[in-house]
Design a protein that fits this description.
Radius of gyration: 23 Å
Helix content: 40-55%
Oligomer: single chain
Number of helices: 13
Length: about 325
């Protein structure tokens, strides 16, 4: 995988493009093995945010690269340019490994490279990617997905994770760690982008369940059941489930668990409470139960989450 080509066109995100250029463009001083030969391919010139970029080659040169990197696509409501989509598809058909960073996944999906494959993108756009490309199995909880010849990353900083993963595949963990050390980032992050996703309440105020949501949030320390929620909403458990799916997109128990996890995240970020105390305050009962559900939902244990997100300003 010696040659790496950045596929650029108007409307790319400059952060993801810069990440790829920084990692693949020059080898760290301690690395003596041959490094990548990087080129920037696109129409000339290219407007990237407020920057004007002069590519080295046209998009037709993508098909000669070993690895093609597609940076984030700024406006996901607009279809990516046909010449970019065609060039990325042709590169993959010619044998290139193709990786997208953040919303670059929309380019790969438009090229048909994600059909029947698991993929990810920035958590704020995973629903849109699913709706627009139903043949893609979108995973909103991971930092990146490696399908061998096709790879996708989640949002922003996850571009670093995927690029370091590619270096690790090509040059081994030791050199990937050296690159990460130069960038002052961890060589591998635990968990997934679920750590960074906010969980807002359903916004509709005219829904039959509108009064139920705040009632539940005030009682997260109670062992609530579906029957308790149905009784409070004055409807059957079956009707409750139907309304929940329509407004919240999930089941009552799953929504309730999500709110308990979200409350646990807030307490881990803003208090010094023990995990046992937080388990009690969120209705989890025991620290073991909290750890099991938290790790499954967020991707890391509560203690690791607290170390990452603890705010000194939030201390009581």
């Amino acid at each position: 995988m010696d040659t790496v080509a950045l596929a650029v066109t108007d409307g790319m995100l400059h952060f993801e493009l810069s990440v790829a250029y920084e990692i693949f463009g020059s080898a760290p001083d301690a690395v003596t093995t041959p490094w990548y030969r990087l080129s920037v391919c696109g129409p000339s010139p290219v407007r990237v945010g407020r920057f004007l970029l002069e590519p080295d080659h046209g998009l037709d040169r993508l098909r000669y690269a070993d690895t093609v990197i597609v940076p984030g696509w700024a406006d996901v409501d607009v279809d990516p340019p046909a010449d970019l989509v065609d060039a990325v598809r042709s590169a993959h058909e010619a044998g290139a490994r193709v990786a997208s960073l953040c919303t670059g996944a929309f380019v790969l999906a438009a090229a048909g490279l994600l059909d029947g494959r698991r993929a990810t993108t920035h958590w704020a756009h995973t629903d849109l990617l699913t709706d627009r490309h139903p043949r893609v199995s979108v995973d909103p909880d991971v930092l990146y997905v490696d399908n061998g010849s096709v790879l996708t990353s989640a949002g922003k900083a996850a571009a670093l994770d995927l690029c370091l993963h590619l270096v690790r595949l090509d040059h081994g963990s030791s050199i990937a760690n050296t690159v990460a050390r130069r960038l002052v980032v961890p060589p591998h992050r635990d968990g997934g982008q679920a750590q960074f996703v906010t969980t807002p309440l359903p916004a509709r105020t005219d829904h039959p369940l509108a009064a139920l949501f705040p009632w539940v949030l005030e009682r997260l320390d109670h062992p609530l059941s579906v029957e308790d929620l149905a009784r409070q909403a004055r409807m059957s458990s079956r009707n409750l489930g139907r309304h929940f799916r329509s407004v919240a997109g999930t089941t009552p128990l799953r929504w309730l668990l999500t709110q308990r996890i979200r409350r646990a995240q807030e307490l881990l970020e803003t208090t010094d409470d023990t995990v046992d105390a937080i388990a009690s305050a969120t209705g989890m009962g025991t620290a073991a139960t909290l750890r099991r559900h938290f790790n499954r939902a967020v991707g890391v244990p509560p203690d690791s989450y607290r170390r990452t997100f603890r705010s000194p300003a939030g201390r009581p």
